[in-house]
Amino acid sequence: MAIINRFLFILGLIIIVSSCKPSSNEKTFSIDQLLLKRYDKVINYPIDSLSFPRSYNLDKNEILKRPSKDWTSGFYAGNLWMLYDITGESRFRESAIKWTAFIEKEKYNDRTHDMGFKVYNSFGLGYHRTGNEHYKDVLISSAQTLATRFNPNVQSIRSWDFKRDQWEFPVIIDNMMNLELLFEATKLSGDSTFHKLAVAHANTTLRNHFRPDNSTVHVVVYDTINGNVKERVTHQGYSNDSAWARGQGWAIYGYTMAYRYTKNEEYLKQAQATANFLSIIKIYQQMVYHIGILMLLIFQMSLRMYLLQQ
Question: Which residues are catalytic?
């Protein structure tokens, strides 16, 4: 029996090691090659001010499109600006300029908190690569619009306007991503108001959006009179108590970015703690996977030994 146990242990180790090692036949690509492979499919997509490419379905050979008011509309232009950085190819720069222009009308859209997602990813990245003064003006105007959603009692920027009958003042963890526009607006304009609003929002989120294990709450609903938390819920996660994967990413990026502008060590610590939470989850998943394999092997070997003894 000791020999069998030893054999199972060694076999289990072999399975674990081999499952972690990439196949020698597996074709690998660099990140740059993967980006170009995908964007070669959409770079010739017709310029359309009402229809921004959001994703590409390889199986159906079709592009999923969204209007400029959608929170993802600035991503395509932003990616084109970054592809120009990576490749130096003028086709990406020219296309980025054309698509960026169609987002300008969003600078006056005060019905959303997603100004950073839309305008900073397009005009912001474009400004840092071209120095275009008009881009700078659009960024400042967009920051002014976003600032109108700040509530001094809550000390946060309102996220959504829907479900007003249920949520008095909802703030989602995603909103941390939009603070970059405010921080940049202060650098561009010299007006410290934008920076102060961003810091206030980051501090309020730091107090109320994180659980003891450093996972994030998706939606925190506030009382607009006293600024107190009314409830913590989810809108896109599994449950009110679950860790919403994309929300973890918003928190990690958001507080790393906020640290970059403020040098507040608490922001960096929170980004690191939330990243560590994801690492623990990954390790747990790997353990469960490998334990499952070992249990299956043990069952198979036990069944085989039983049949041999019959």
Answer: 114, 174
